[in-house]
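Aim 2 progress update. The chain analyzed this quarter is reproduced below.
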Amino acid sequence: MAKSFDSVFRPGLFEGKTILVTGGGTGLGRCTAHELAALGAQVVIAARRAELLERVAAEIAEAGGKCSTASVNIRDERAIDAMIATVLERHGRLDGLVNNAGGQFVAKLAEMSPNGWRTVIDLNLNGTYLVSRAAYRAWMQEHGGAIVNMLADIWTGYPGMGHMSAARAGIENMTFTMSMEWARSDVRVNCIAPGTILSNGMLTYTPDVQRRTADDAFNQPAARFGTESEVSAAIVFLLSPAAAFITGETIKVDGGAQFQKFRLIEPGKHRGLTPWNGFHLTTDFSGSPYERLAPKDGGE
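Predicted structure tokens:
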């Protein structure tokens, strides 16, 4: 059997559970799907690009896990309802949902087209709502479950991505309401807010943006970027029974980046925080501006 995810959680934690991960073909969704499958879950990964989903499903199968795929546009209500119905038909249950799918582009607010603004709001905020609503109405309302929504480090705004920041802020506030309205059905709803994470999506930006982002890594207490595994571990925790008394909460996985005053204490002149990297298929950043920041296997 091929090497699989080195999770800090006990084997079989999600045995007999079905968990849907949107945006599961790349980045944080791919990593999370791998960890959940390694812990025994029947994982369903969903996204628009079927070829990426099939690749990840093959990776998980090779590592001994269970994964099925669903091609879907999370802005299409009917397509989402059909996807959830198919998941239930194939697997008979839906215990967890990770709303990871989303997207954005770099543009200042004054230079952004109204259509660009609407597209990102629709994809991130409306998409999260539509998938959560469908999962709740079709299964969780009667059987319970856990939902984890994806945010970002939006606490002081996000110059260059104001559309994303606004959408993610809306997701957090929506999560507050979901957690109250759906608690009667034994459904917990929480958020994960990653800081800047070394994921393959980072390589989609221009070299100039990559260089500036890498240079900014030391302007935070951790003095580095996060790993996909560190975000995945937080998601797994919120889906697990260990988080049974946690709902309506946001866990920030950002290395302390939220504390802007850190810039006053000579960032880059201390050791920083040791990373954890359990993902056996983590992205290779050799030759990119991020190379010096990428952790070695096993968190070394």
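The longest strand covers residues 187-194. Strands lie at 18-22, 42-47, 66-71, 96-99, 145-150, 187-194, 197-198, 226-227, 250-253. These observations will guide the mutagenesis experiments scheduled for the next reporting period.
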